[in-house]
């Protein structure tokens, strides 16, 4: 129990006490515990979703979860290290341009030397392990944008075209465009969209004029429509989705149909851990892109809602940190980490429940994908570090 005293408190004045989980100088242990629960639960569900496929492929029942566990250990080390270095997030401010440059070089490298899987060149081999540079690029961009805007609050909010747009917003658009453009060339359109949405939120939080925000929203929507129309593959998938996936059940509608079968089979309380039928090679990418469908099948509606509630709670803790951080850079950085986390979460879930066409995005902390897990855990280590520099606040 922490005691919060007013600066004008008199010697005999009674002090009002209230519980606080986010105390100045102390880490947000509630957020830490929530992230650990998510990530450990993710390992359990990856084991359930992958063991049959691994057996059929003679890779060993635990092959996928063992690989994920290796990345988890590295991520946990990164999380605890970054969270506990004094003012670590402020040190990142000085390294923001270096991190951004490294991200751009990695994205260029993957176009020339990357490993192609399912027609996309998104991975490079580092020390014998597959690494996806776009996962690092997400947070490198957030870091660079936060650093730039934190130093120029008046410039970002200026009504002057010369100062507000040319000196404030245009440099941000160049940073965003370079990252999104390189990721788009892989191709990885869904990641580029997630980054673009997060960058848009950051620009608003950075104080840009609403007229620019509306303009960029319209421009971004029109650009997305144009890209979809020009890309025959994406257009086919979207037309199938908005038409009738059952019109081509063995082709473009197959993943959507199998995902819905898994969710419907779960009922209220699920079939039980390990009892999913759709993971028996019926649902593709059951341990990665569609792991939420397997969770629904095995834990039911109740289990799925509890998981979604936990994701929302983690996002809430991140936004609390952003709103109470005493440092503008820390506040913007916390905002970016929180929003990219929740945007990717709900895009993955929306695909599973057939609200949007398939995108190939992982569910943070849940899906098989070592790079995503490692980067997210390190990012949340930074978020926990920021939480130490927040004003005392009621929960």
Structural classification = mainly alpha
Query: Within the largest sheet, what's the order of strands?
Result: 1-2-3
Q: Say how many strands there are.
A: 3
**CA-CA gap between termini:** 13 Å
- Return the string of H and E elements: HHHHEEEHHHHHHHHHH
Strand percentage: under 5%
Largest sheet: 3 strands, antiparallel
Q: Bin the helical content.
A: 55-70%
Cα-atom Rg, whole angstroms? 22 Å
Question: What report would you give on this structure?
Answer:
The chain has helices spanning 29-56, 63-84, 88-94, 96-113, 133-150, 153-157, 161-184, 189-205, 210-230, 232-242, 254-266, 291-324, 328-352, 370-387; strands spanning 115-117, 120-126, 129-131. A 3-stranded antiparallel sheet has the order 1-2-3, with helices on one face. A hairpin with a 2-residue loop joins β2 (120-126) and β3. Residues 1-24 have low confidence and may be disordered. The chain is globular. With 395 residues, the chain is mainly α.
SSE order and pairing:
Blueprint: H1 29-56, H2 63-84, H3 88-94, H4 96-113, E1 115-117, E2 120-126, E3 129-131, H5 133-150, H6 153-157, H7 161-184, H8 189-205, H9 210-230, H10 232-242, H11 254-266, H12 291-324, H13 328-352, H14 370-387
Antiparallel strand pairs: 1-2, 2-3
Helix pairs in contact: 1-2, 1-12, 1-14, 2-14, 4-5, 4-7, 5-7, 5-8, 5-13, 5-14, 7-8, 8-9, 8-13, 11-12, 12-13, 13-14
């Amino acid at each position: 129990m922490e005691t919060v005293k007013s600066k004008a408190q008199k010697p005999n004045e009674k002090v009002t006490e209230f519980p606080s989980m986010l105390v100045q100088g102390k880490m947000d242990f509630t957020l830490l515990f929530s992230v650990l629960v998510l990530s450990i639960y993710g390992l359990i569900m990856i084991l359930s979703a992958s063991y049959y496929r691994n057996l059929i492929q003679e890779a060993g029942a635990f092959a996928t979860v063992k690989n994920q566990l290796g990345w988890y250990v590295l991520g946990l080390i990164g999380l605890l290290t970054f969270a506990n270095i004094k003012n670590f997030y402020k040190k990142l401010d000085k390294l923001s341009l270096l991190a951004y440059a490294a991200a751009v070089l990695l994205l260029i490298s993957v176009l020339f030397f990357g490993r192609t899987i399912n027609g996309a060149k998104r991975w490079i081999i580092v020390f014998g392990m597959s690494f996806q540079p776009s996962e690092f690029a997400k947070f490198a961009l957030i870091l660079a944008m936060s650093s730039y805007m934190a130093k120029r609050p008046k410039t970002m909010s200026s009504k002057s075209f010369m100062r507000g747009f040319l000196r404030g917003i245009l440099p941000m658009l160049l940073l965003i465009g370079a990252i999104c453009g390189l990721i788009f060339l892989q191709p990885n359109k869904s990641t580029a969209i997630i980054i673009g949405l997060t960058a848009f939120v950051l620009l608003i939080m950075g104080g840009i004029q609403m007229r620019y925000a509306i303009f960029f929203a319209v421009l971004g929507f029109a650009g997305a429509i144009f890209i979809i129309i020009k890309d025959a593959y994406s257009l086919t998938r979207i037309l199938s989705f908005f038409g009738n996936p059952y019109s081509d059940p063995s082709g473009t509608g197959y993943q959507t149909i199998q995902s819905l079968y898994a969710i419907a089979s779960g009922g209220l309380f699920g079939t039980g851990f390990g009892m999913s039928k759709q993971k028996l090679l019926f649902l593709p990418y059951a341990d990665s892109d569609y792991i939420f469908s397997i969770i629904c099948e095995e834990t039911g509606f109740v289990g799925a809602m509890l998981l979604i509630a936990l994701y929302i709670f983690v996002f809430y803790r991140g936004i609390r940190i952003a709103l109470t951080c005493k440092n503008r850079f820390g506040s913007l950085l916390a905002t970016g980490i929180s929003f990219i986390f929740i945007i990717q979460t709900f895009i993955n879930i929306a695909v599973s429940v057939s609200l949007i066409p398939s995108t190939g995005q992982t569910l943070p902390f849940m899906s098989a994908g070592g790079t995503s897990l490692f980067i997210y855990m390190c990012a949340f280590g930074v978020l926990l570090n920021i939480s130490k520099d927040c004003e005392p606040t009621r929960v």
